[in-house]
Amino acid sequence: MTDSATDRVAIWVGESQLSLIEGLSRTPGLDIMALGGDSAMIRETADRLEAAHVADPKALAGVEADATLIADPSRIMPTDVLSAMIAEASRSHRPLLSMAPRPASIEESAELIASAVLPSPVPCFRDLPEGRRFIAAADSFETPSSASVEISGPAAETSLTGRLFDAFDLLSVWFGLPSFVDATAVRPIGSHQPTTPRRIFAMAKFPDGRAASISAGVDGGRHARITTLFGPGGRMQNLDGCLDWTGPEGEVLEHEATTTRGADDFHRELAASIKSHVQMNAHGERSRSPEMLVDLLATCEAVLLSSRTGEPESVDAVRRMLGRV
User: Fold this and answer.
1) Strand order through the sheet with 242-246
2) How far is residue 175's CA from residue 207's CA, in Å, rounded to a whole number?
3) How far apart are CA 111 and CA 120, in angstroms?
4) For a FRET experiment, which of 10, 62, 115, 203 has its CA 20 to 30 Å from that of 181?
5) The 3-state secondary structure of the chain, one letter per residue
6) Exposure of 193 by Cβ count < 10 A (0-12 exposed, 13-18 middle, 19+ buried)?
7) Per-residue pLDDT of the chain (325 residues; tens, 9 = 90+)
8) Residues 115, 275, 168, CA angle at the centre, nearest 5°?
9) Cβ 122 vs Cβ 131: under 8 Å
C-alpha cells in the first residue's frame, strides 16, 4: 500500500463514465494507475492521464494498485471474469469495489454468492465521514420509529440498485432489514412499452412494526442524499452531510447551514469511499459481512420484484431464492 496521502486505483470504465474519471483524476488523494475498457475513447483517456490501458477486466489484476473499481454500472461481467477478479483481489489482499452492487447477471450472482465474497458497493453513505458523523449524532436521538431516504443523481454515477443499496444499507443501522417491501417504479411519461425504471418509490416494513420510505432515482439532477429520522427525539435530518435536528416540540437542537454543492460532489464522495475501503482493508476489516451484503442485495431485489408485480414482497422469501440475488 502507498502512503496515507495517496491511494492507487485500477478502474474498469464505460464511455459514459469518462467525465467521472476526469473528475476523479483531479480529486486529491487518489492516483488512477490503469483504465480498462474496450473503446478508443477509453484508451485515449488513459493516455491523457498517463495511466495504463487494458482491454480485458481480468488484466486489471496485474496492475499494482491499492484497490480495483468496476465503474461501469451497465456492464454485466461474465461469471468467469468476475470470479477471476474476486480471486485475484483476495490473493493480492486489495479490495474489489463496484458502482453496481451486482455486477454479474442475476443467475451468475447466485453462483458467485455460494462460493465467493462479492465486490463491495461504492459509494455508500455509511462508509463516508459524513455518514459516520450522522450515525454518531443519531446516537443521541433515541430509537427512531420511522424514516425516509431520498437518493438521486445521473445514471452514469451508479445503477438504480446502487442507490437502493445505499438507502437500505444506511437504514440497517437503526432498523435492521425489512420483512416486506412495497414498491412502485416510475418510467418515462408516454411510454407504452416496458422500459427500465428511472426511479423507484418503496415502503419498507420492519418486523417490529416500524417503517421507512425510500425514493431512489437515476433520473438526473445533481448527486443528492436526504435522510430523515422521526421518533421520540423529534426530527433529525441530514441534507448532503449537513445536520438539522428539532425536538418533539419543534425546538431547534442543532442546525448546520447547507454547504455549496457542485458538479464534483460525486467525484469527491467516490474518492472518499475508495480511500475508506483501502484503509479498512489495511486493518483487515470490512464495512459489512458477506452475509449482510447478500441480505442487502436480497432486499434490493425484493424491491425490484415488487415494482414489477405491483404487490408487497417478502425479503426473506427472496433471500431464500438465490437465483434472484
Assistant:
1) 252-255, 242-246, 234-239, 224-231, 146-152, 211-217, 199-205, 180-186, 313-314
2) 9
3) 17
4) 115
5) CCCCCCEEEEEECCHHHHHHHHHHHCCCCEEEEEEECCCHHHHHHHHHCCCEEECCHHHHHHCCCCEEEECCCCCCCCHHHHHHHHHHHHHHCCCEEECCCCCCCHHHHHHHHCCCCCCEECCCHHHCHHHHHHHHHHCCCCCCCEEEEEEECCCCCCCHHHHHHHHHHHHHHHHCCCCEEEEEEECCCCCCCCCCCCEEEEEEECCCCCEEEEEEECCCCCCEEEEEEEECCEEEEEECCEEEEECCCCCEEEECCCCCCCCCHHHHHHHHHHHHHHHHHHCCCCCCCHHHHHHHHHHHHHHHHHHHHCCCEEHHHHHHCHHHC
6) exposed
7) 444 579 999 999 999 889 989 999 999 999 999 999 989 999 999 999 999 999 999 899 889 999 999 998 877 888 888 888 888 888 888 999 999 887 766 555 666 666 667 899 999 999 999 999 999 999 989 899 999 999 999 988 888 999 999 999 999 999 999 999 999 998 777 666 566 788 999 999 999 999 999 999 999 888 999 999 999 999 999 998 899 999 999 999 999 887 766 668 899 999 999 999 999 999 888 888 888 998 999 999 999 999 999 999 999 998 887 554 4
8) 60
9) no
How many residues are listed for the chain in this entry?
325
Q: At what angle do helices 290-309 and 106-113 cross, to 10 degrees?
A: 160
Instruction: Specify the pairing of strand 199-205 against strand 180-186.
Output: antiparallel
Q: Looking at this protein, which amino acid is placed at residue 204?
A: A
Q: Which residue has the cell 412502485?
A: 184
